[in-house]
Amino acid sequence: MPNTAAKSSRIALLGLLLIGFIASTASADSQGTLIAEPVETVTDPDNTEAFGFGNGSVIVAPIPFSNPLIGTGLALGAGYLFQVDENANTSLIGVGTMRSDNGSEAHGLSFRLSTPGNNWDLSATFADAALNYDLISGGLAIPLRQTGSFARLEASKKVAEHWSVGLQLKYLDTDITSGNISFGGLPTNFTLFGGLQTASVGIVAQRDTRDSDIYPTTGNNLDLSVLYNEITSGGGNYTKIAALYGAYRPISEDGVLAIRLAGCGTADGAPFYDLCSVGGTDAMRGFNPTQFLDDRLLSAQAEYRHKFTQRFGMVAFAGYGAVGDSFGSLDESGYAGGIGLRVAVSKKVPVNFAIDASHNNDGESLIYISVGERF
Known about the structure:
By secondary structure, this protein is mainly beta.
């Protein structure tokens, strides 16, 4: 299982970017800008000799990002991290805010508690967002503004050495508007006139044998989720099922091959922002996450990661994704590849600033700036 020191820094530098970008996870899980060096710990987050709430660490981290959904901007996170005992994962109380150059902004609060012995993992996230982004439809880029409030609660229990199973609850109250006349001609699950409120409940499961959840070099990870979603405004419901599988193998002393496979399915009537998405569901680079949206998705990605020194590294990646109204008719697809630079932001754990340049089969080039690996 991933070590707890690694988890603490990942939560601090990634988890504090707790704006789930309600419409999609384009930041990924999710990214040209000026990269600022993050402010690291006020106290040492890797000190595991003192446990309990009163022996935690404070972390403040400004995080630049760039992605094709909401553009370039800066997120600021602040959190308090602690471990209840030596066998528990790191717990967190954090706040975050972000703003991008296209006027998108979001603010949120996050909480996570891992109980003694790591038997239970409890988490909660609350966020408000106002996002500006383009919906790609029929070759047109339709500008949208999506506002909303989001809440998520999750409780997972360790049921075997590498397995955990849990319950997830979500609530979203959102409204979407556009000044583009083409928006009104889209299907009702895109226009969502009058706004939408959705309550969700479901089962989540994970099997994780990785040696680290920041920069794994060996092991596998499987995430499964089955969510029932009730549209409380106007009726209707739908189910969404998603599976993400990652495998990691050392190629040399300094090289790692990482692979991700993704599958997704939603029932008819799901609002467009909860459809399966290439770039959203699977965090694939190369496409705006609103370009390939449908009821079904399959995708595959591979990435070679290499460390030149303790501070600098590179990646080369490629991926293919397809969507359609059924797994037998995945008739919209795309492939992309690229290279990236990695710059370590901590001497203690392998957390990287990532700058990736991608090129897709439509001839488009996109830049991503983020913290951490895509998968």
